[in-house]
Amino acid sequence: MKNKLVEYRKTFGYSQERLADKLGVSRQTIISIEKGKYDPSLNLAFQLANVFEASIEEIFVYEEKGDKK
């Protein structure tokens, strides 16, 4: 799944550490999500959307594997 987490985080002026603290997760979790190595739980995705005043779909873009048109 692709995401725009880095862009939103920077726009709102959050460091990875500050965002992680706000969400109650580790900085490594934020790094892994940003790099696309970890897909957040639905609960965490909703928390991120709430923090950035955006919809989940604005932050995360589902991409089917093998479907690169």
Automatic annotation (TrEMBL):
Keywords: DNA-binding. The lineage of its organism: Bacteria, Bacillati, Bacillota, Bacilli, Bacillales. InterPro entries: Cro/C1-type_HTH (IPR001387), Lambda_DNA-bd_dom_sf (IPR010982). Residues 5-59 form the HTH cro/C1-type domain. Signal peptide: none annotated. This is Helix-turn-helix transcriptional regulator. GO terms for molecular function: DNA binding. The keyword DNA-binding applies. Pfam families: HTH_3 (PF01381). PROSITE patterns: HTH_CROC1.
